[in-house]
Amino acid sequence: MAQRTGTSHRAAPEHTHPGQVSVQTALAALADPVRITLVRELADSPEWSRSCGSFDVPVGKAALSHHFAVLRGAGLVEQRDEGPKRVNRLRRDEFDTRFPGLLALVLRDAQDG
Prior knowledge:
Layout: H1 23-29, H2 33-43, E1 50-51, H3 61-73, E2 77-82, E3 85-90, H4 92-98, H5 102-112
Antiparallel strand pairs: 1-3, 2-3
């Protein structure tokens, strides 16, 4: 029987390029208040500086993972593992190329409350 080491291996997250995303998928991803909060906080943070657990959202770990999966599927977020943490960046330039002005509008509306 193989011995297990103390390390765990997670599958690398799958990412969808914004060029492959429909407008319906993009709008659906941005329609949820938790996902808007995640996007807004990423927009205000340096790239790769925010781990998944650093966001102030009222959901548990499983729900947070789901929200990040939706954002990855819509081409909004890219994630990578750095040691035990999964860090994030907003794919602003790529998303803006696909949907010019949409992200700026959503971020402005989120600030207006």
